[in-house]
């Protein structure tokens, strides 16, 4: 599947719909509204002002669609749900255009306002919805006929796994799952031989992240027996730092307790473990905030950067910046950047956490850590999308392996971009040992479960207070 091409198709038709709708509305305004206003027939001239307005309005709609997540999960669109989303976004967009561009017009009566809003809404919604309906219908048809599919692994190898695979493969209409193979969970594999005749055996659950990367897996369906339910937490922990959609076969208790939400009429009932931590619009605003603040911090803060660079250089021998590999979103490694606060070759004996009176930290480094100024170069990591301003602190793989021995759920932190500051960082500062890392972990997990722009703002306020008061460690 070419997701980029599909997004481009949506963009093309959304741009076309916006341009045709605005051009038609412009003609309506000239022929009816302005003719009534001036008492003479006003000709329709496409002048420079019109083309500037056409470009601006079209750009506005594309930005609004992007912010609200229209172009995410481009192949997983319900036509009815998409119609409802298009309706809501069109209402919001038309009202914004009305209050910014149309409200100050000189009119004969308020009826003109109602007519303008109704015509613009009808034109834009009808054209956008029709184009999208055609695109999503073509896509759904290709999925139902098995011409398109999402690479899927089945986790489990007993009766439930065999039944689910058989049921889904025998359906007349496919629902997008292209099964690549199955993964064993434990030694209770009574049906594994029967399943192996129909589906490739890819390995054990401990190898699942490697399997996902190797086969470009997009969905994982957990189909284990009731006797194996003790393994669900282990399985979810193994999958949590991957970008796959996780689905689980429900039992009768799940159905009666209302946990199973119907996603299709004919598809198998499955519980989907949602990866959408924040609404699409909040996620987009968070990313835009990251970019704007990072650019401002790097431009306005350049004198501070210069002062710190000179201070680091004079404090001890070595480079100004310290770069080291960390693990980020979905377990992907990246290099984090800081102003160097330690003496050269401080980790020649291997990875070690800093402590309150760490002799490896320079005097200038202690000052920077107190007010968190050593973290300033990470705005570059934020700008290029490796980090966010607020998010769990990224850690080295060496310490992640130590932490996960005691707290396997640490990998849940990799569901979001790591941050310059976090709730755990505000509470604990720099952790001095693995136990403190685990203690800090519960606050970062709570943050992920309650992620919002409001929570980010609170953490930023506390971070600023810590910097101003020099309470960092």
Low-confidence stretches: none
Average of per-residue pLDDT values: 85
Class by helix and strand content? Answer: alpha/beta
The SSE string, one letter per element, is: HHHHEHEHEHEHEHEHHEEHHEHEHHH
Report on the architecture of this protein.
Helix content is 53%, strand content 10%. By secondary structure, it is of the alpha/beta class. The chain folds into three domains: 3-144, no CATH class; 150-273, NAD(P)-binding Rossmann-like Domain (Rossmann fold), CATH 3.40.50; 280-469, no CATH class. The strands form three sheets. Strands 3-2-1-4-5-6 form a six-stranded mixed beta sheet, sandwiched between helices. Strands 7-8 form a two-stranded antiparallel sheet. Helix 6 (192-198) links the parallel strand 2 and strand 3. The protein is flat, with a radius of gyration of 28 Å. The chain starts with a helix and ends with a helix. The mean pLDDT is 85.
Give the topology:
Blueprint: H1 3-38, H2 48-67, H3 79-102, H4 111-144, E1 150-155, H5 159-170, E2 177-184, H6 192-198, E3 201-204, H7 208-215, E4 219-222, H8 232-239, E5 245-248, H9 252-256, E6 271-273, H10 280-300, H11 302-315, E7 321-327, E8 333-339, H12 363-370, H13 378-383, E9 388-390, H14 397-406, E10 419-421, H15 423-428, H16 434-449, H17 453-469
Parallel strand pairs: 1-2, 1-4, 2-3, 4-5, 9-10
Antiparallel strand pairs: 5-6, 7-8
Helix pairs in contact: 1-2, 1-4, 3-4, 11-12, 14-16
């Amino acid at each position: 599947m070419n997701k980029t091409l599909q997004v481009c198709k949506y963009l093309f038709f959304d741009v076309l719909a916006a341009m045709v709708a605005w051009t038609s509305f412009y003609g309506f305004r000239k022929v009816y509204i302005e003719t009534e206003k001036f008492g003479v027939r006003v000709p329709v001239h496409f002048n420079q002002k019109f083309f500037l307005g056409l470009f601006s309005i079209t750009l506005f709609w594309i930005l609004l669609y992007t912010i609200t997540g229209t172009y995410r999960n481009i192949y997983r669109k319900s036509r009815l749900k998409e119609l409802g989303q298009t309706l809501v976004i069109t209402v919001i967009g038309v009202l914004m255009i009305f209050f910014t561009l149309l409200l100050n017009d000189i009119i004969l009566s308020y009826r003109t306002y109602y007519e303008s809003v109704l015509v613009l809404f009808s034109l834009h919604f009808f054209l956008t919805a029709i184009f999208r309906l055609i695109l999503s219908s073509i896509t759904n048809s290709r999925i139902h006929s098995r011409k398109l599919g999402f690479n899927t692994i089945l986790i489990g190898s007993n009766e439930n796994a065999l039944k689910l695979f058989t049921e889904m493969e025998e359906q007349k209409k496919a629902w997008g799952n292209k099964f690549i193979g199955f993964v064993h969970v434990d030694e209770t594999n009574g049906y594994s031989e029967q399943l192996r005749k129909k589906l490739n055996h890819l390995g054990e659950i401990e190898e699942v992240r490697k399997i996902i990367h190797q086969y470009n897996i997009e969905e994982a369906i957990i189909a284990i027996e009731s006797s194996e339910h003790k393994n669900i937490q282990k399985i979810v922990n193994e999958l949590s730092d991957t970008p796959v959609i996780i689905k689980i076969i429900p039992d009768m208790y799940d159905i009666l307790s209302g946990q199973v939400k119907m996603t299709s009429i004919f598809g198998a009932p499955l519980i989907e473990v949602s990866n959408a931590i924040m609404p699409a619009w909040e996620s987009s605003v968070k990313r835009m905030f990251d970019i704007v603040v990072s650019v401002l911090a790097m431009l306005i803060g350049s004198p501070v950067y210069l002062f710190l660079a000179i201070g680091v250089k004079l404090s001890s021998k070595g480079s100004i910046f310290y770069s080291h590999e960390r693990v980020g979103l979905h377990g992907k490694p990246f290099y984090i950047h800081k102003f160097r606060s330690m003496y050269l070759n401080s980790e020649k004996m291997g990875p070690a956490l800093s402590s309150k009176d760490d002799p490896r930290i320079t005097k200038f480094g202690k000052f920077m850590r107190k007010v968190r100024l050593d973290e300033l170069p990470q705005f570059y990591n934020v700008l290029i999308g490796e980090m966010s301003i607020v998010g769990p602190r990224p850690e080295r793989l060496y310490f992640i392996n130590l932490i996960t021995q005691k707290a396997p759920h640490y990998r849940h932190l990799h569901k979001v971009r790591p941050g310059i500051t976090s709730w755990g960082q505000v509470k604990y500062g720099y952790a001095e040992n693995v136990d403190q890392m685990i203690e800090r972990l519960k606050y970062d997990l709570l943050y992920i479960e309650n992620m919002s722009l409001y929570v980010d703002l609170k953490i930023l306020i506390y971070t600023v207070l810590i910097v101003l008061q020099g309470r960092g460690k």
